[in-house]
Write a structure and sequence with these properties.
Layout: H1 2-15, H2 17-20, H3 28-32, E1 47-52, E2 58-63, E3 67-72, E4 78-83
Antiparallel strand pairs: 1-2, 2-3, 3-4
């Protein structure tokens, strides 16, 4: 579960590299040297989706355990775990634009 979460986060960072450049002094070497420094434990199943809010402060995760997780950007703790009425795994979750999260 957590390994998939971090793999998904790394894919998101690499896919959005151009969007990150204005916010972080990032270059290709910096992105290649990313390391796992903490495990975020919340989900009981594989994490299938990771989405960042517009400001990059919050992270939303969805899992095979049919819950959503809302995380602080620094990754020290989750803000909230949402039990959903999904009957299947969650493969997509996003913040709604223009709603102040």
């Amino acid at each position: 579960g957590n390994r998939n979460f971090f793999s998904a986060m790394l894919r998101v960072l690499l896919d959005r590299q151009r969007q990150l450049r204005p916010h972080f002094p990032a270059d290709d070497l910096w992105l290649q040297n990313l390391q796992i420094t903490r495990k975020l434990e919340l989900h009981d199943g594989c994490v299938n989706t990771v989405a960042w809010d517009k400001e990059g402060r919050l992270c939303l995760t969805g899992s095979d355990d049919r819950t959503l997780g809302l995380w602080r950007f620094n990754g020290t703790s989750h803000r909230r775990r949402f039990l959903t009425k999904h009957t299947q795994n969650i493969f997509a979750a996003e913040f709604v634009p223009e709603t102040n999260n």
